[in-house]
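Long-time lurker, first post. I've been practising inverse folding by hand and with some scripts of my own, and I keep getting stuck on stretches where the structure tokens seem ambiguous. Below is the full token string for one chain I'm working on. Before anyone asks, I'm not after the true native sequence, just a reasonable design that respects the backbone. If someone could post their per-position residues I'd love to compare against what I wrote down in my notebook.
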């Protein structure tokens, strides 16, 4: 693995869930057909950049810009929708329930991200229970999973890559009763040139990227309520963004507005502001906004009178 590529860490709690799911279906396959079954899981990941700056919704991010992926949570598909075998892992809805199945998956992932907004879903994971210590993405993996998600991630998140986690057997551990140790996670990314990059075997550890966003705290809820009341009709939009960001679009004149983006670790991290033309929809250069010594001094209605520094 190149030293310029990001490393992947899987939180031990998430790994317990993943390895138990992989072990479960491997055992079912051996009992039914004498060969282990593959399975699918949905890892949720935080993204840490090489540069120490907030990862904003405005950023276009290449794989080389990423220092580390932290997989801190995982969604396991319900068994009634699974169609697993020793050579493939897919989903199959009961007859006439294809729409319901799709809606269920969309809602389930959305709910996970709602309560854990600093996570991103960068692509599904699956198992190669027939592989030992290492593996590589198949043409199906690349063309039907990694490539579509690379395009989706760029369109929706500005991430010009997708992430794939493929669980394989650990040669060192002979006792599969201990799923946590019997498996290991090979990780890959598809970069902006649609080239597969081997990120190596994921480390299993503890992730410290799972901090609660400001708006989910009691102080954050109170502060946002007061800001909305103060702004009144000047508040055009109040939105949540991927990664735990929040935006306030505040009308300044009939033709201009200020977009204030609050990072998930506000007030420890400074908000970012941009001026927007309500006529042409053009944005000014984004700027860090520093105002007051504490978040209670931040007044979104007076943001244009605050001190600011241009973003690097």
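-- Answer (accepted) --
I ran through it position by position. Result:
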């Amino acid at each position: 693995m190149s030293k310029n590529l990001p490393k992947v860490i899987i939180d031990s709690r998430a790994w317990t869930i993943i390895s138990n799911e992989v072990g479960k279906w491997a055992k079912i396959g051996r009992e039914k057909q004498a060969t282990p079954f593959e399975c699918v899981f949905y890892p949720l990941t935080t993204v840490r950049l090489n540069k120490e700056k907030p990862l904003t919704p405005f950023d276009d991010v290449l794989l080389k810009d990423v220092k580390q992926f932290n997989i801190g949570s995982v969604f396991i598909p319900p068994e009634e929708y699974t169609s697993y075998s020793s050579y493939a892992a897919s989903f199959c809805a009961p007859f006439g329930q294809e729409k319901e199945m799709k809606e269920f998956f969309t809602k389930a992932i959305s709910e996970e991200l709602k309560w854990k907004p600093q996570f991103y879903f960068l692509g599904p994971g699956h198992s190669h229970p027939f592989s030992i210590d290492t593996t590589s993405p198949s043409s199906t993996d690349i063309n039907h999973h990694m490539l579509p998600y690379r395009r989706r991630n760029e369109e929706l998140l500005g991430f010009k890559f997708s992430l794939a986690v493929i669980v394989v057997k650990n040669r060192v551990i002979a006792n599969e009763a201990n799923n946590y140790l019997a498996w290991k996670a090979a990780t890959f990314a598809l970069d902006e040139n649609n080239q597969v990059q081997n990120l190596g075997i994921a480390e299993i550890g503890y992730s410290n990227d799972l901090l609660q966003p400001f708006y989910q705290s009691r102080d954050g809820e109170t502060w946002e309520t007061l800001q909305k009341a103060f702004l009144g009709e000047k508040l055009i939009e109040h939105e949540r963004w991927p990664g735990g960001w929040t935006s306030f679009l505040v009308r300044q004149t009939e033709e201009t507005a200020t977009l204030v983006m609050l990072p998930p670790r506000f007030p420890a991290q400074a908000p970012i502001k941009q001026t927007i033309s309500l006529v042409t929809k053009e944005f000014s250069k984004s700027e860090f906004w520093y105002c007051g010594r504490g978040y209670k001094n931040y007044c979104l209605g007076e943001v244009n009178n605050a001190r600011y520094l241009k973003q690097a």
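A couple of notes from the structure itself: The radius of gyration is 22 Å. The first helix runs from residue 12 to 33. Happy to go over any region you disagree with.
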